[in-house]
Every structure is written in structure tokens, then in C-alpha cells.
Amino acid sequence: MNLLAIAIATSTITAPVDTLTGADFDPLVEISEIDALSLENHGVLYAPWLLHMPDFFNEALIGDLIDYSRKFTGTRYRAGGKKPGGFDCSGFTGYIYRHIGITLGACSSAQSLQGEPVDPANLRPGDLLFFSRRAGNKRVGHVGMVTEVDSITGHTRFIHATTRNGVIESSYPSDPYYRARFISARRIL
């Protein structure tokens, strides 16, 4: 399976970024195809590719994503909001993923088509959870991002922008409200 990751180039590499190959990186890295990914907020020299990377690389990136998302806890809700002055649910997840150079769709239903489907029993931090607005409805109307997974129970915590409380963390599937509205999960990283 291809994992979306970033190959960090060191100052010892003198070749132009677009001519680098897998031989220019650690032997565990295999470049499979070029991808237009940027890390403008990280201030490092980088080469953007889709890579076959060990999981520990993605874990560091996901850890950064989770830490960054939690900085916005308590930010107020704003319909259509996509910035720290106020977020709606998809505006929040889109803003968080842009921090690491990944563009998500503008609404929760568009985001629900991105990445790879994930079985709820195999969730991990960084995965997106999609919910309906009403129990039993199958139309996506809300999105949140997994921040923690209990390895024993499989219960997760996820961060999302709610209309009543702004950006908060909630539980799934232990919270009956979200269990009744769950539709699907997707893995972006």
C-alpha cells in the first residue's frame, strides 16, 4: 500500500529536486511516483513524492497533525468557517491537513471520498470519521479526525468543530450520539 509521506532531503544532496531517485535516500525508501505535495510550514528542503515508507515516518507526521489540531480546542464554530477565527467541521479538518501540505475537499461529503476506506476496528490517529446529521441517515453531514485509539477497547477520541461547543474532542463508538450517526472512516495518511 502506498503511504503518503515526505522525503526530507539533506544539505548533502546537490542534485535538483526533480532528478532525485530512491538511491538518494535511505534504502528503506522507494519512490513510486511524483506527487505535488508541499510542506511550506515546515521550513525544510524537501522532495515531494508518494513513497513506500516505514510506519514510523508517518507516525511522526501524524503526531504533528494531532498536536497542531489540539491548539484550536475551544475555537468557536462558524458556518462555512475555514480559519482560526471560526471553523465548521470540514473547514477545521481541511485547515489541519493543509498544515502538512494536504488539500482536502471543501465539504464533509467531498472529504468522505478522499483517501482509503478504513474499517472502524482498524482506526488510527489521523483518520477521518464521517457522520450523518440524524441517526439512521446515510448522508454525510459531519467530519472529525481521530486523535487517540485505545488499543484494548478500540474506542477512539476524535477532534471536530461542533455547532454548540466549537472545536472539542469526543468519543466514538462509546458515545451513543456518534455511534448512531457513524457512516464511514477514511485514511488520508
Textual characterization of the structure:
The chain is α+β, with helices and mostly antiparallel strands and 189 residues long. The protein has 4 helices and 13 strands. Helix content is 19%, strand content 30%. A 6-stranded antiparallel beta sheet has the order 8-13-9-10-11-12. It has a 3-stranded antiparallel beta sheet with strand order 1-5-3, with no helix packed on it. Strand 6 and strand 7 (86-87) form a beta hairpin. The chain is globular and about 35 Å long. Mean pLDDT is 80; it is low at 1-20 and 22-54.
User: Any idea of the CATH class of the largest domain?
Assistant: Alpha Beta
Query: What overall form do the CA principal axes indicate?
Result: globular
Classify the fold: give the CATH topology of the largest domain.
endopeptidase fold (from Nostoc punctiforme)
Give the tally of structural domains.
2
Compute the gyration radius: what is it?
A: 18 Å
- In round numbers, the mean pLDDT is 80
Please report the distance between the alpha carbons of the first and last residues. Answer: 11 Å
Bin the helical content.
10-25%
SS elements, strand count: 13
Please summarize what this structure is.
This protein is an alpha+beta fold and 189 residues long. It has helices at residues 55-70, 89-98, 108-111, 176-181; strands spanning 3-4, 7-8, 30-34, 46-47, 49-52, 82-83, 86-87, 116-117, 128-132, 140-149, 156-162, 166-172, 182-187.
